[in-house]
Write a structure and sequence with these properties.
Length: 311
Amino acid sequence: MTLKNVYFNHDGGVDDLVSLFMLLQMEDVRLTGVSVIPADGYLEPATDASRKIIDRFGDGTIEVAKSNSRGKNPFPAAWRIHSFYVDALPILNESGRMEAPLSELPAHRHLIEKVREAEGKTLLLFTGPLTDLARALDEAPDIEDKIEKLVWMGGTFEKGNVEEPEHDGTAEWNVYWDPEAALRVWQSGIEIDLVALESTNKVPLTPAVRRRWASERRYEGVDFLGNCYAGCPPLVYSENNSTYYLWDVLTTASVGRPDLVRKKTVNCTVISAGPSQGRTVAVSDGRPVQLVYDTEPESFFDYMTDLAKKA
Ligand code: AGV
Ligand code: CA
């Protein structure tokens, strides 16, 4: 089996950390490095949780790097607190040790190093803002040729999820945190697969999904999924701003199992300033991205749970 090089940059949310857990179970993925940006989480607990997940569910040798990037528009603290909760889960703290190596490099330099060092091309998986990638491209434009593509959870062409003063609500948070970074990446030649907000409409966190994980908690990995998502509000009657979808996990699953999603080309751009900052908007002369527009939820949840059973 040929292994796919994957470099993962995430921002410490519950589904970011679950994504790391899943990547570690994928047989055809060689995870070349992980970095953490303090957007939808706090830097220390999100980094520690990443190292502990690698220790517990991986082979403990994958390096983790901290980002020193800062965004324009900070995430709500109530969401960011989740990173402390995952870091404190007993299953991640049983050994009392943290062995996965912490890189000396800031995330964007770590990314440059790992892409340059890899044999062949690397797929970049980003489940938070694109700041570290934008900085890496500015410092080392040569890496573009060694990037297979970027798979990103970000953006929307429908209703946004930013509800903040001075904003019109058209943006998705990962773009809004650093709109200029997204625009910088849009201006590159890198191929982009986009999992936008609406791409995940068929995969909300529901009580039924929870019951399934609970019923199979005899598997350590499935128990871990249930515990991670225990702090997140599910979709019961109608959606609200804190309803959880499996945003990043669908994005990650599409790397391991491309057949789970359907994609179409959309030409688009990013609005980087003003009341619509962070909005991704379809325009005929925009750059092409491959937008995920449909998925098979049952196969997706089967895949996720099967990976967890292997852990
Ligand atoms: O906008 C989706 C992104 C994903 O990368 N994040 C959460 C996922 O990690 C921000 C976000 C939107 N709504 C949220 C978010 C919520 N209700 N709680 C926490 N984060
Ligand atoms: Ca995220």
